[in-house]
Structure formats: C-alpha cells, structure tokens
Specification:
320 residues, mainly beta, Jelly Rolls, 2 domains, 7 helices, 14% helix, 40% strand
Length: 320
C-alpha cells in the first residue's frame, strides 16, 4: 500500500445555531447560511469520511482501516481499539449559542447506546468580542439543585460562564455540563461519539416552529455536579511539539512551524494535523503536498518519516 498524507471530504452539518464562518474563515464549501459543523475526519456510522486526494481518493476511512488496520491506525491503536477509528475531528461555527448539554462516560454510553463516551477538547480559533462559553458549575452542586434551577429556568445562574479569546483551550471530560457561545469558531477533538444529552435550548424553535428534543432524565446520572477546571495552559515553542492535552483518549500538542521539521514516528499510532493558522507542506516519499488554515490531514501510522515545512500553527493529535 502506498502511504501518503490523507485529506478527506468535509462532512457539512446544518445546525439551528450555525452560520457562514466555515466558508468565510475556513474556506469550507458550504451552501447554507446555517452551517454549524464541518466533520473533518469521522468514522461515525452514517457519517464516514471519504478520501479527497491521491490514489486512494473515493475510499472511505473505514474501508482503509478494514484492509490495512496496522498501517492506518497503528499497531498500538489497533491492539486497543480493533478496527474502530477512536477519534472525531470537527470545526464548528457558533453563530448563536449552542444548547446546554452533557455527554455520558464510556460505561453509560456503552450500556445505553453501544457507543464510546465523549471526552473532548476545544481550541478557540476565532472569537468575537465578549464571546463566552459555559463549562461546568460555578460551585459544587447536586442533582436536586440542578433540577430546581432547570425547572425555574434559572440554570444559567449556577453554571460557570467564561469569556474566551483566540488560542484558548478547554478540556471537557465526560459529565461536564457545557455550551459553546455565539461568535466562536472552534476546532474540536473528541472521542468517536455523537451522543449528546441536551439539557436546555433557550426555548428556541426551528423554521417550522418546533423545539429540539431535550434529554433531561438521561442526563441526571451523566452529569458531574462538582466544579471543574477545564482551562489548559500550554507553551508555544517554535518547531517543537508543546503538550496541550494528554489524556487516555488522545494527546494534543501545539506545533508552531517556522522552517522545516523532520518527523520520525514508530508506527504505533496515526497522527492528525489541524492547521489553525498559516500554510505548510508535508514532504514524504519524494512527494510534497501543501495545506492551509482549516485543513485537516491524517498521517497513516505506517508513514513513519516525513518533513513539515512552512509557517503555520498546527494542532498535532495522536494516541499515546
């Protein structure tokens, strides 16, 4: 198998809260003024990514893994997850506030939905003035206080609201009540899961006058009612991989590229690059490919040596 850096067709999702920044800011081929998400790399059933470049163009991610699991996933990832691609990569445009929601942990998600849980991280790519997010409770709470405030429509009074800016990173373990606020473009890295329990949606209605489904009862035993610290600090040393998040599900590094970096891998895990700013190139097996802000690239685990060059800010993600 001829291994090379893989790009995939974006899977575009209309959302009631979406806008047009995925086109104007990230050059995605959206055709709707309410596009909220671009799924860059996905093996979620019904939304499996398809290769957009090179001789494997038109092949699905799951077909590639089925035929060559060690070469695509890596030996350690294949041993741990089998042929399941364990992560999901997205860009989001929040033109309006997203719903207040929570994701179940692995045990609950497996029991109820035969799915992974949804631990995730957000990298703020662009933030309007005064944009904010909701992450967890202001103080330790409990189910009784939560339900009372939900019923009284005062839930926001006990949740922690944080103003954000470009470059901020938040790590959300399962059980953390959260919402992305209006005016944000976010790069999201998460476990492969589309399980969301919606708690409150600001009483919004869609174009047909319908409200969206809430999952009040399901969420009760999925919520972590303790105050949590989600903000991550990190370094940005040029031409080095600076750890941002290191958890059992994924490792994310900040990698500012200025010049050329020679990369050597072990074959144990795939690597993904999300281009947050600038332009860069990857040279491998005598070929060179160019990328820009908003591009997401999968380096198959079997591609063990390559060069990165250019001037760009990258998120580098793998499983350790």
């Amino acid at each position: 198998m001829n291994l090379y850096p893989l790009q995939f067709e974006p899977i575009l999702k209309e959302r009631i809260w979406g806008g047009e920044k995925l086109k104007t800011f990230l050059n995605k081929p959206i055709t709707s003024s309410i596009t909220g998400e671009s799924w860059e790399l996905s093996a979620v059933k019904g939304d499996v990514s398809v290769v957009a470049n090179g001789e494997l163009k038109g092949k699905s991610l799951t077909d590639l893994i089925e035929a060559n699991p060690n070469e695509i996933l890596g030996t350690a990832v294949y041993t741990r997850f089998g042929k399941d691609f364990p992560l999901l990569f997205k860009y989001l445009d929040a033109n309006q506030d997203l719903s207040i929601q929570v994701h179940p942990n692995d045990a609950l998600a497996q029991e109820r939905h035969n799915s992974f849980g949804k631990t995730e991280m957000w990298y703020i790519m662009q933030a309007d003035d005064n944009a904010r997010i909701i992450v967890g409770f202001k103080e330790d709470s409990n189910a009784k206080e939560y339900v009372e405030n939900l019923e009284n429509k005062t839930l926001l009074s006990i949740l922690d609201t944080v103003e954000v800016k470009k470059g901020d990173v938040f790590f959300l373990e399962t059980g953390t009540v959260h919402a992305i606020g209006a005016g944000l473009v976010v790069a999201e890295i998460q476990q492969t899961s589309d399980i969301t329990y919606r708690l409150y949606d600001f009483d919004r209605v869609d174009a047909s006058g319908n409200t969206r489904e809430l999952h009040i009862d399901l969420a009760l035993d999925a919520i972590n009612y303790n105050k949590v610290d989600t903000y991550k600090t990190y370094s940005n040393t040029v031409n080095e991989s600076n750890t941002v998040v290191d958890c059992k599900y994924f490792t994310t590094n900040s990698l500012p590229v200025d010049g050329t970096i020679t990369v050597a891998k072990t074959g144990e895990t795939f690597t993904v690059y999300m281009c947050i700013e600038g332009t860069f190139e990857i040279k491998s097996n005598g070929q060179k490919n160019s990328y820009k802000k908003g591009d997401t690239v999968l380096i198959p685990a079997g591609l063990k040596s390559y060069e990165l060059s250019g001037k760009a800010s990258l998120l580098e993600i793998y499983i350790s």
